[in-house]
């Protein structure tokens, strides 16, 4: 180094080629991750469907998922990033030393902002290796092109599960400021709870036959039989968590199994063992009717715009055919307790189509969360914990915290939907 | 008879989550720090999804040795939990992890299944074939004239040196290579093992 160079370096405060300074390398990697879409509950109608049938069995982008660049030799993370709404990504990496780097990519079924994560049955991380190792150019950008998961005959069910969860957040829950504040961003009180919503797949040990949600843990389980049925499984369970965190203080006291909430004696024969579980067309306690309908109502917003021409609901890996706009000319006592009756009420207050004179509301999904929040703390009529006695030692009102309570609380806060509830088989004895 | 009289007992009794074994294979990492087990009586538990009107199950019933090769026979059980008779149809495919068919697709004619009835059919995996990872998939559809359902049920297995090993959904995801992204512009790149 010349005396002239040294003088310049000294003037700039820069040491030139000093052996003690480690060299560094960096670059960017771009590409796209796509999966073959096999989820059911698509819609043939082209009017108002957020998931049109034209997307079924085609490659779609992996939405808003976390990804990492790792060094091939020792798996050290050199960079982190995420995909966009179309599965595209550009991620920066940096490492010590000179020259190019040998790296690999992998992505995780985890929302970029940490709202939810698909985990293994024991809580471990799933990851998707993205095409093996390659040379990342120092100072340059490497285009990895498009990487594919699944095909038209063999889906990757886990990528489909992630897509269902991602759509639930992007197309429904994120439209509520209350959800932005509390869904997957506040650790609930249960032991072992997570701040993010942890979705455990695939839990096939018999403990999770239809999927389940634990609000006080921010946890969901999904069995492999629940794959490809987003509306009644993945999205429905996320709807349960959404309902839970909508409450005052983002919690409520759930009923113990001993309360037998899911055993309404439909035929009045005194035997409730035969009544375990629920379906959209079975008579239930009004509390159960409400909670299950709310969960699917959040899901319906993820699948349909308010002006949807053919909104349907079902438990199916295909297209649904149970129309949400159906309104019966008469209501049996059983039908007043069906989940589908309450679900249709929630649809009518969301949609912008007027099916009858009183169908004059079209409220965003935020109204669901905010009206649940309107339930006062306490165990009195229309309170958050109405099913409990005042000392919270016993479940005493299984018809409490019902769809009627929702509608009446909403009216107190300024929106009258009681006529719409009447059109959807008013849940008698639910107040 | 009501709808739920036809349903299995105890489907809402959820518990034990968190006790499953940790996976440490490609596609998944070991468990996160231990969390407390959750039991059915925990407060805050919300009973999950609705129960299907059409119950579809693939139950492995038989391993048959023939000249050192094995074959699995699944009993395809179609139960009508609805309180009305339903028209039921189904198709069976056996494909490998890349979606290549291992046997001609079997399409059953649509038939009526009475309320509460259980219909069983035998589904056999191909006797011969290469080693690899395979899935037997049933797509069943039903309609009672009011509602219609479609369900997909899969059973996974691995054939190695003619021997068949049944796999869970988690084992299928972790071992079959289906977790690995493929570039359609280049030969398939395998990256199994050791990636963390």
Description:
The complex is a heterodimer of chains A (431) and B (196). Chain A has 431 residues and is of the alpha+beta class. Chain A has helices at 3-12, 157-171, 177-182, 234-246, 286-303, 339-350, 366-373, 403-412, 418-423; strands spanning 24-36, 59-61, 65-71, 77-82, 88-96, 101-111, 116-119, 128-129, 134-136, 141-149, 197-201, 212-214, 219-222, 312-313, 322-323. In chain A, strands 3, 4, 6, 8 and 9 form a five-stranded antiparallel beta sheet that branches. In chain A, strands 1, 2, 5 and 10 form a four-stranded mixed beta sheet that branches. The radius of gyration of chain A is 26 Å and the shape is elongated. The model of chain A is unreliable at 1-20 (pLDDT under 50). Chain B is mainly beta. Chain B is built from one helix and nine strands. Chain B has one helix at 169-175, and strands at 45-46, 54-66, 69-80, 86-96, 106-113, 118-124, 132-143, 148-160, 163-167. In chain B, the strands form two sheets. Chain B has a five-stranded antiparallel beta sheet with strand order 5-4-7-8-9. In chain B, a hairpin with a 4-residue loop joins strand 7 (132-143) and strand 8 (148-160). Chain B is globular, with a radius of gyration of 20 Å. Residues 5-26, 31-42 and 186-196 of chain B have low confidence and may be disordered.
Topology at a glance:
The complex is a heterodimer of chains A (431) and B (196).
Chain A: H1 3-12, E1 24-36, E2 59-61, E3 65-71, E4 77-82, E5 88-96, E6 101-111, E7 116-119, E8 128-129, E9 134-136, E10 141-149, H2 157-171, H3 177-182, E11 197-201, E12 212-214, E13 219-222, H4 234-246, H5 286-303, E14 312-313, E15 322-323, H6 339-350, H7 366-373, H8 403-412, H9 418-423
Parallel strand pairs in A: 1-10, 7-11, 11-13
Antiparallel strand pairs in A: 1-2, 1-5, 3-4, 3-6, 6-8, 6-9, 12-13, 14-15
Chain B: E1 45-46, E2 54-66, E3 69-80, E4 86-96, E5 106-113, E6 118-124, E7 132-143, E8 148-160, E9 163-167, H1 169-175
Antiparallel strand pairs in B: 2-3, 3-6, 4-5, 4-7, 7-8, 8-9
């Amino acid at each position: 180094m010349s005396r002239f160079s040294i003088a310049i370096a000294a003037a700039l405060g820069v040491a030139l080629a000093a052996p003690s300074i480690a060299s560094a390398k960096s670059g960017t990697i771009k590409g796209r991750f796509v999966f073959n879409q096999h989820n059911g509950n698509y819609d043939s109608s082209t009017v108002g469907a957020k998931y049109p049938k034209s997307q079924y069995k085609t490659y779609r982008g992996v939405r808003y998922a976390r990804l990492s660049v790792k060094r091939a030799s020792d798996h050290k993370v050199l960079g982190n990033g995420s995909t966009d709404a179309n599965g595209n990504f550009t991620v920066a990496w940096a490492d010590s030393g000179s020259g190019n780097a040998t790296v690999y990519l992998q992505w995780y079924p985890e929302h970029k902002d940490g709202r939810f994560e698909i985990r293994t049955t024991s809580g471990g991380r799933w990851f998707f290796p993205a095409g093996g190792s390659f040379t990342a150019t120092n100072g340059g950008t490497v285009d990895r092109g498009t990487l594919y998961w699944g095909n038209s005959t063999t889906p990757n069910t886990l990528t489909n599960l992630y897509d269902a969860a991602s759509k639930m957040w992007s197309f429904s829950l994120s439209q509520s400021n209350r959800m932005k504040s509390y869904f997957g961003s506040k650790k609930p009180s249960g032991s072992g709870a997570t701040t993010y919503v942890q979705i455990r797949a695939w839990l096939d040990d018999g403990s999770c036959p239809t999927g389940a949600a634990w609000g006080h843990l921010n946890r969901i389980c999904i069995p492999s039989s629940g794959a490809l049925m987003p509306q009644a499984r993945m999205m429905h369970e996320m709807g349960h968590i959404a309902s839970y965190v909508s409450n005052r203080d983002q919690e409520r006291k759930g009923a113990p199994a001993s309360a037998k909430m899911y055993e309404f004696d439909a035929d009045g024969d005194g035997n409730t063992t035969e009544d375990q579980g629920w379906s959209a067309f079975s008579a239930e306690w009004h509390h159960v009717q409400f909670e299950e309908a709310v969960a699917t109502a959040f899901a319906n917003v993820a699948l349909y715009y308010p002006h949807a021409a053919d909104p349907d609901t079902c438990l199916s890996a295909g297209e649904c055919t149970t129309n949400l706009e159906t309104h019966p000319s008469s209501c049996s006592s059983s039908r007043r307790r069906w989940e589908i009756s309450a679900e249709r009420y929630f649809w009518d207050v969301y949609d912008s189509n007027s099916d009858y004179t009183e169908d004059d509301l079209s409220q965003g999904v935020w109204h669901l969360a905010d009206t649940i929040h309107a339930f006062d703390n306490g165990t009195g009529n229309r309170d958050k914990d109405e099913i409990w006695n005042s000392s919270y030692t016993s479940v005493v009102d299984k018809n409490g915290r019902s769809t009627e309570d929702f509608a009446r609380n909403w009216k107190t806060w300024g929106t009258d939907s009681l006529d719409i509830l009447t059109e959807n088989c008013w849940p008698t004895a639910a107040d | 008879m009501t709808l739920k009289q036809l349903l299995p007992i105890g489907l809402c009794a959820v518990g034990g989550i968190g006790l499953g074994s940790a996976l440490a294979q490609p596609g998944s990492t070991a468990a996160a720090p231990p969390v407390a087990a959750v039991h059915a009586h925990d407060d805050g538990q919300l009973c999950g999804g609705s129960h299907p009107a059409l119950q579809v199950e693939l139950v492995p019933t038989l391993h048959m040795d023939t000249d050192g090769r094995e074959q699995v026979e699944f009993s395809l059980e179609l139960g009508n939990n609805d309180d009305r008779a339903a028209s039921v149809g189904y198709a069976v495919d056996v494909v490998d992890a890349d979606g290549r068919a291992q046997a001609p697709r079997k399409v059953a004619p649509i038939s009526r299944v009475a309320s509460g009835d259980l219909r069983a059919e035998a589904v056999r995996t191909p006797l011969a074939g290469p080693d690899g990872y395979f899935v037997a998939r049933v797509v069943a559809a039903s309609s009672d004239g009011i509602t219609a359902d479609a369900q997909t049920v899969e059973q996974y297995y691995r054939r190695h040196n003619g021997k068949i090993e049944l796999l869970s959904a988690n084992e299928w995801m972790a071992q079959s290579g289906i977790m690995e992204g493929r570039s359609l512009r280049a030969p398939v790149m395998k990256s199994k093992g050791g990636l963390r």
